[in-house]
Amino acid sequence: MLGRILPNGVAAAELTAYPEDLKPHPGEEHLIARSVEKRRRDFIGARYCARQALAQLGEPAVAIGKGGTGEPVFPRGIVGSLTHCDGYRAAALGHKLRFRSIGIDAEPHDRLPDGVLDSVSLPPEREWLSTVRPGTGLHLDRLLFCAKEATYKVWFPLTGKWLGFEDAHITFTVDEESAGGGSGTFHSDLLVPGPVTDGGAPLTSFDGRWLISDGLILTAIVEG
Q1: How would DSSP label each residue in 113-154?
Q2: Which site in 95, 103, 115, 190 is 20 to 30 Å from 154, CA atoms measured?
Q3: Pairwise CA distance, residues 135 & 126, whole Å
Q4: Ranges assigned E (strand) in 147-204
Q5: What is the pLDDT of residue 176?
Q6: Which residue ranges are tagged as binding site?
Q7: CA 142, CA 111: separation in Å to the nearest integer?
Q8: What is the reported pTM?
Q9: What is the pLDDT of residue 180?
């Protein structure tokens, strides 16, 4: 599913069923030695996907480290993003010579828990949600949250800075819509300065794609 919202040149891999014999890379075990079982499965599964994506790019299967804020550390020359939610783990990777950064996120296609929307959204975003016609079957509040997560994941590797939910205003288009599913694009307008560490132009916005299918919401931003 993830490949449907990624451009050519980005390698993607996903797990919808967790193999019981799946083991971590020997170089990663120390990172999860004290983790609970769910955390281990998410960590191992997402990094397994990352190595599958590395193979698609012609790169060796290496350990995927962890940075100071928990972010994945990919091999030199590779950019990418990992995600996981109940029943799903995925990775999207590309060569740094072609892409500056990648951010993906997956969420269950369900409404946000009570009280969460106000803490992760801006007034204009909530106003838009209130105008969406009822009966679509799409949980667009969770889609908004998913797009915010992808925005942060593509932002952080380029800036090394935190980005709050209130620091990006996201708008959506709907290209296709079906019962319990759909797809489209979104635009993340950054409301804070975006100086970068790679010598490129400061960040002002991102454009991404979204997909709702098979009980999942997927969002992806690829910054070229």
Answers
A1: PTTTHHHH--HHHHHHHHHSPTTS---HHHHHHHHHHHHHHH
A2: 115
A3: 18
A4: 168-178, 181-190
A5: 84
A6: 39, 47, 83-84, 105-107, 149, 153, 163
A7: 6
A8: 0.96
A9: 80
C-alpha 173: how far from chain center: 18
CB 29 within 8 A of CB 63: no
- The amino acid that residue 101 corresponds to is S
> In this structure, what DSSP letter does residue 113 have?
P
Q: Point out the annotated binding site for Mg(2+).
A: 105-107
- Here the tokens at position 59 are 């790169």
Residues placed in the known binding site for CoA: 39, 47, 83-84, 105, 149, 153, 163
Crossing angle of helices 140-159/123-131, nearest 10°?
A: 150
Interatomic CA distance for residues 75 and 87, integer angstroms:
27
Query: To the nearest 10°, the Cα dihedral for 88, 34, 31, 9?
Result: 0
Closest CA to 209 of 131, 105, 79: 105
Number of H helices, E strands in the chain: 4, 10
* CA distance linking residue 92 with residue 79, whole number of Å: 9
Q: Rounded mean pLDDT of the chain?
A: 95
Give the pairing of strands 168-178 and 181-190: antiparallel
Contact present, 188 and 105 (Cβ < 8 Å): no
Tokens matching residue 134? 């009822």
